[in-house]
Amino acid sequence: MTNPAIAANGLRKSYGDKVVLDGVDVAVPEGTVFSLLGPNGAGKTTAVKILSTLISPDPASGGIRIGGHDLATDPQAVRAAIGVTGQFSAVDNLITGEENMLLMADLHHLSRSEGHRTAAELLERFDLVEAASRPASTYSGGMKRRLDIAMTLVGNPRIIFLDEPTTGLDPRSRHNMWQIIRELVTGGVTVFLTTQYLEEADQLADRIAVLHDGKIAAEGTAEELKRLIPGGHVRLRFSDPAAYQSAAVALHEAMRDDESLALQIPSGGSQRELRSILDRLDSAGIEADELTVHTPDLDDVFFALTSSSVPNQPNQSQEAVR
After folding, report:
1. Is the pTM of this model over 0.90?
2. Where in the chain is the domain with CATH 3.40.50.300?
3. How far apart are CA 6 and CA 82, in angstroms?
């Protein structure tokens, strides 16, 4: 990868005897979404705070470059290149949406005319024009989140850190936020996303890393991660008991469910495997009434990789998807 937007090597952070990050490597190409998953307390927010210059890593950490700038020697340049939206909104509820935007413009040292122009453009982009003159305290959760991200974009950052941006939002507002993130990336923005919603990472992220016990347990695309976890299967259900019995003989490796007349065959869900199963049924003159394919989803991946009973083996997991 040449000139990644975000690059960190051996990221470490401890608080006394508590190790939060234990040698985390991160590389995010420009114009992509990178999602960091992990249980509560895994260190996701700590990673965001370090990469966005809010706290310092341990001295034992390796180099960190954000937007081409060295975080250790030029943190000011890093701050100028990024935007950050945390779990808790930066919106001031006592002033209007427009006043929040203009305050952010002042913080970025925009001229009065440029600040008003930028605020107006972003309020329109995020569908907040009608609410712009109302106090932010009257906004819904989804509106506050939109305003929060609009404020983040005042400085036109090319890299944005979104730390659990949809926490507490209803499903409609969450989907609206997903569309906003997609539009940002289409415009060339790089997004570093932490989330507690696995579907969110599945929908948005180009690459996903699972953080567990301070280490990256696995990293890859959503599909690559799903292939790490066994448990995929094809389920065939029959209404005719005779057809069910014949299919059980033809598919002798299948697990039987005599009560529901269903067979379950281990499968990775590939087209070749599915065709093989159907060919064997056709050869026996049997037709199933229902066929469903189950492949592991990110929930399965998450629980498998972060279970306390599963040893943390980041090197093996990462190697499997590279």
Report:
1. no
2. 6-91+139-226
3. 10
Retrieve residue 4's tokens.
């990644």
Distance of CA 85 to the CA centre of its chain: 15
The fold adopted by the segment(s) 6-91+139-226 is Rossmann fold (3.40.50)
Rounded-to-integer distance, Cα 211 and Cα 302, Å: 10
Q: Would you say residue 21 has pLDDT above 80?
A: yes
At a CB cut-off of 8 Å and minimum separation 6, what does 163 contact? 44, 45, 48, 84, 85, 86, 87, 194
Domain boundaries for CATH 3.30.70 within the chain: 233-294
Domain 233-294, second-level architecture: 2-Layer Sandwich (3.30)
pLDDT in tens, 229-252: 777 889 999 999 999 999 999 999
Task: Summarize pLDDT for 137-165 with one digit per residue, the tens.
Answer: 999 988 998 999 999 999 899 999 998 88
Decide: 145 and 165 in contact? Cβ < 8 Å: yes
Residue whose pair of structure tokens reads 């009257």 in the numeric block: 138
- Answer for the pair 210, 38: CB distance below 8 angstroms, yes or no: yes
Q: How many CA atoms lie within 13 A of 190 on its CB side?
A: 19
Q: Compute how many other C-beta atoms are within 10 angstroms of the C-beta atom of residue 173.
A: 18
